[in-house]
């Protein structure tokens, strides 16, 4: 992890979850111009505090903090969270039908990256990678891999996920967008 003035760790308080929601609101597609979405990336799902608290109770999400301000987050969404965010139900159903390395994904120990976001003022400082590497260190005893979907209209996010070690395992179109399903296999990735 690069040397920087950030603490990258698990969420520790309700106030931090509230800061996650504020950062999320600033990066939702309606809050950004199409040009900014293409250049800087975006998030598509809006959570509420009760949902984040339930997710956090199952597996704490990871944040980057600078001077007690949450400047980046990566939400952990184990399969038990499926009912908490109904808009993501189709994604979970799709994942159940995929295979990875010849094995059904549903038979593997995985969780979904619920969302990852870095505040605009803190991008380019290694926080995206640091969040994911903290996830791996914190969760590799419980999970073999992490999987998520990225809009193909979000090239910044696709490049960042590939840099960390994710590979695209499926692409599909729904009523909203075209999605790349990307997976980081921790068992196969020993070099990062």
Characterise the protein shown here.
The protein has 192 residues and is of the alpha+beta class. The chain has 6 helices and 9 strands. The protein has helices at 14-26, 34-40, 49-58, 89-96, 127-139, 155-164, and strands spanning 7-10, 62-66, 69-77, 99-100, 103-104, 110-118, 145-151, 167-173, 178-185. The strands form 2 sheets. Strands 1-2-3-6-7-9-8 form a 7-stranded mixed β-sheet. It has a two-stranded antiparallel sheet with strand order 4-5. α5 (127-139) packs across α6 (155-164). The chain starts with 6 loop residues before the first strand and ends in a 7-residue tail after the last strand.
Rounded radius of gyration (Å) = 16 Å
Shape category? globular
Report helical residue fraction. Answer: 25-40%
Instruction: Give the biggest beta sheet.
Output: 7 strands, mixed
- Rounded mean pLDDT score: 86
**Number of alpha- plus pi-helical segments:** 6
Care to count the β-strands? 9
Which range does the strand content fall in? 25-35%
Parts with pLDDT < 50 across at least 5 consecutive residues: none
SSE string, helices as H and strands as E: EHHHEEHEEEHEHEE
Write the SSE topology:
Blueprint: E1 7-10, H1 14-26, H2 34-40, H3 49-58, E2 62-66, E3 69-77, H4 89-96, E4 99-100, E5 103-104, E6 110-118, H5 127-139, E7 145-151, H6 155-164, E8 167-173, E9 178-185
Parallel strand pairs: 6-7
Antiparallel strand pairs: 1-2, 2-3, 3-6, 4-5, 7-9, 8-9
Helix pairs in contact: 5-6
